[in-house]
Amino acid sequence: MPKLGLGNASSSGSSMITPGVVTDGLVMKHMYPAGAVQPLSDGAAYFDGDDTSGSYIDCAASNNFITGTNVTYSCWVNVSDADQARLITAQKGPGSTNLSLGVNNNNGAEVKGYITFIVWNGSSSHNYVNYSAGINDNNWHHIAATTTSSAQNLYLDGALVASGSNTFGNAASSNRFTLGSFHNSGEFLGGYMANVGVWNRVLTQAEIKSIMWKQYADLSTSEKTSLVSFWNLDALTEFDSVGTDNGLVLDNHDTTVGSELLTGFTNGSSYPFNIFTSSGREISAAIETSGNWGGCASNAISVTAGEWYKCTFDLTYISGTDNLQVVIGNGPSGASSERSNDTFTSTNGANTVYLKITDTDNAAYLQIGTGAETDVINFSMSNISLKKMNGNHGELK
Length: 397
Prior knowledge:
The chain has 397 residues and is mainly beta. It is built from one helix and 32 strands. The protein folds into two domains: 16-234, Jelly Rolls (Sandwich); 265-396, Galactose-binding domain-like (Jelly Rolls), CATH 2.60.120.
């Protein structure tokens, strides 16, 4: 499965390509008008552009977070492949896109990498605002698009390059907002993307010229007005998904963690550890010597399908090298059904695992135990924490 990638952060004194761009691996940095080279983003999401099974980011599940007829899209892209239609962003509705921004091959004509802004009239057809930009040049470009119920503007590198007077019905969608594809139905982007912003209002050209040089932390209070979501795309947290493709969590401007959910642990009922002692959110000893499974479970928590949880802990292996598994299940026993489709095979030291909930359950448990029936382990854990993640974080598809 193709994956998104991050570059390595550039350090002070990195090589400079004049004028104005510092590169280090996949990292691209842009010059501010003041002349100093500053990081626009510490990394960039990479999309492989595979025609049939390309990578994309699912940013919001069925929550209609972009609504109304006044909308602005803003992003940096570095397009390497625009021989076919490639979507940068897409708000998908039933059977159609409500509002999309992408690059295309100008319907097979010589000019490739032109920008297209697609709006749905709400009843029967799509309308297009196009500009023959030739942006599939492996260089970074800033693209912004605005719409009202009857007018659209398309901006390239801060300049107004095309306008339209099409009817736009509404951005609300019963499905998902995606980056890099049409919700896994083709038109996969090839190249890099960073600093994607979405507003439920029309930004002025002056605002677009201002925000194009900013990460979320640099936006002014007025520039954050009606901001729906902003993805720097420079903090991708990879995880290994059991039984599914690899994925990631994207930290965006409104990603936060909730309050602590754990109060303590008890030894497993069906598959207990041979020796188990705990105090609150610490496990002082957990030993399985018989090679016949072993595990413990937290207090009960309530979870909802689609939610993400962040689990952190400090792990010390006392003896044994077999795998330790962390999962959310529907009971305090190791024999219970999983409520998250991602488990964690641990490493010594400080660990973080992100767990996505697949089934709603008002009495679920964080389970910690052996990964296989033949495992023999002796470990301790401290600072065990489980918190719900809030916000429009996304995941790789």
